[in-house]
Amino acid sequence: MKIAILAPTVAPLTSVGGLGDVMQDLPKFLESVGNEVITITFNHKNKISYLPHEKKKTLGIKYQGTKIEFDVIETKHPFTGVKIVVFSNKEFNQLDIWDPIKYEVFADLVVDYLSEFDNIDCVSGHDWPCGLAIAKCHEKLDLPTTMTIHNEAFKGPVVEYKGCVMTFLELGIYFSDAFNTVSPTHAEEIKSIDFIREQSKIKPFHGIINGIDLDLYDPIHIVDKMLKLTDGKLDPRAYGFICGYSAEDAHAVKPKIKFSWFYNSKNLKNYVESWNNMDKSSISGTDVEIYGDLKGNIETPLIGFVGRGTYQKGFSIMFEAFPEILEEHDIRFVMLSTGEKDIEEGMKDLAESYSGKVMSLIGYCPPLASLIFAGSDWTVVPSVWEPCGLVQMESMAYCTPVIAREVGGLKDTIIPLHYDPYNNPNFDVATGVLFKHYDKYGLKWGIGHALNWSFYKLRDICLFMRYKQINCPESPYDKQAPLSMMMKNCYHHTVKNLSWQNNASVNKYKALFGGAIYNHYI
């Protein structure tokens, strides 16, 4: 099949979240199973035109009576080699990535560009920015179309098209031949929405889990990845201890990374200073502000958080629960986020209120995300809702278990430690802890459960260890300690079940496209 993928953002070029990561990976793996793929996007902030490229033509469209010209440039993704077609206009490039005007114009640009092809089998749109484009491709070009919902909470503006007054996302779903969201559990959750339930009765609707690319997220390549994300300009080995590691030696290497970068935080501060002084015109990222400091010994637990600064990600219960958690437990907490101003202020206040225990990194710095996953003992993902989530997968790829809410894709991707390990000790398969209720008590239980069975109750675990004919651990990082076991579980679970290479999601997308083609023509 020849597939045109409409992508609002593409990591690491113009990415601000998980959507961009999927738009980097999905085309690569669709090509790996025999498809021809074109990714179509905008030249946000001129980021893509810094790559070697070729100008193919100029498209002129009218918007509210004004003719606007766009260069059509072609390039290849720097990591995957997939062909990218980019619309570029110096004024539009500077508009906010999510400006609705961009995507009204995008719809007409896509139609004009694709009208010259007679061999496109399916057009695949992703999230609300592509909804109007999917509707117009379906109606004006008579092409099979699919719509992927990455986060139904963001629907875009209401517009009128062909007599339908709907949001961009709803138009994309309504005019698509098949649609999906990004995890099986979330597919069931959003069927409570009348519009989605009605559409799912008349066309194919599926939950297809996202994945991660092991070529990028294998911890053995962490140094190379951090180098790539800085365009080769910042070598992390010049700032603190870091090296590639595997599931077999994660228990020995990860604590050293934690201590070097976070408990000897001058290394991290020097790295951030160098990052802030870099020219970032050709890479994704913003300057980072550091608040707070961390002090501890190598066995002091470190919990990490990486995510966008939005309500959805669980900040309200983190700000409510962590003051109590920090008083009750001798732990450290590091956060990397940027977004809503009140959330950034809350991060700053938490760090300043708990000197030596909390560090808040406010900004968007992809290599720091890898460092937090590698250096943390646990990560926390306490989302209100989560269609799929990639943070928990990235964390587990780096051999770091996850404390998360039992919702959406988090439920689908994390193997939870049993609530009663005395009677059901599943340390040999667990990859995290799941809690149900979105309140501070749920989060406190989740963190307490994780810490109890990885740091505090090592003696209590001896019965389980003896049953397995294993010596009792004296340290959380002993090779046969529960935390070390879960580190290995995380990596192997990611490889077998969560990677694009092995999770069958690419074939499910092929089936989705096939269903759309059948539904469109038959």
Commentary on this structure:
- The protein has 522 residues and is α/β, with parallel strands linked by helices.
- It has 2 domains: 2-211 and 502-521, Rossmann fold (3-Layer(aba) Sandwich); 214-498, 3-Layer(aba) Sandwich (Rossmann fold).
- Helices cover 40% and strands 18% of the residues.
- Strands 3-4-5-2-1-6-7-10-11 form a 9-stranded mixed sheet, sandwiched between helices. The protein has a 7-stranded mixed sheet with strand order 12-15-14-13-16-17-18, with helices on both faces.
- Helix 3 (100-114) packs parallel to helix 4 and helix 9 runs antiparallel to helix 14.
- It holds the Pfam family Glycos_transf_1.
- Residues 2-194 form the Starch synthase catalytic domain.
- Residues 299-447 form the Glycosyl transferase family domain.
Keywords:
Rossmann fold; 20 helices; 18% strand; alpha/beta; single chain; 522 residues; 7-stranded mixed beta sheet; 2 domains; 9-stranded mixed beta sheet
Biggest beta sheet summary: 9 strands, mixed
Radius of gyration: 23 Å
In terms of structural class, how would the helical and strand content be classed?
alpha/beta
Strand order of the largest sheet: 3-4-5-2-1-6-7-10-11
The first-level CATH class name of the largest domain: Alpha Beta
**Roughly what is the average pLDDT, rounded to an integer?**
95
CATH fold name of the largest domain: Rossmann fold
User: Based on the structure given, which CATH architecture of the largest domain is correct?
Assistant: 3-Layer(aba) Sandwich
- Helix tally equals 20
Shape: globular
Q: Segments where pLDDT lies below 50 for 5+ residues? A: none
* Oligomer category: single chain
GO molecular function: alpha-1,4-glucan glucosyltransferase (ADP-glucose donor) activity
EC number: 2.4.1.21
Enzyme class: transferase
Protein name: Starch synthase
